[in-house]
Structure prediction request, 138 residues.
Amino acid sequence: MTDWEGSQAIQGALRDANRQFPPSANRMLDVATCCIKFSKEYKLVVHELERFIRKAPNVQLKVSGVFAIDVTLYNARKKFGKREDSNKLTKRMGEKLAGIMAHVNVADLNGEEHRLLSKVLAGWIAREYFPESVNQCF
Prediction:
């Protein structure tokens, strides 16, 4: 895939956010802001987040990638609303979520990482980001 304008910006924001674990809320907000800025290219934004998780060398970075998805979904809903037709980013993320979560090996998580990931996934279910069929993948 060729580089596009938002690729370097999203990758840079993800790198900055993941200097420590767990990443700071402000740095994760920077990632979400960057993703929403390029939301017209929602397919490429989802691909960048998926690629980060897929290529992450350790489980902490993979979990941080899921945090980035979480904060992006939250802020996308705040900006675009709950309707699926106005929030293509969330809809696309739901379509790709099973493949994305397949890269996060739950068996490799320690207690703290598992607790944090469970909290994020429970929040997705509570906020009804995705249909029930998508929620089954986790």
Summary: The two ends are 28 Å apart (CA to CA).
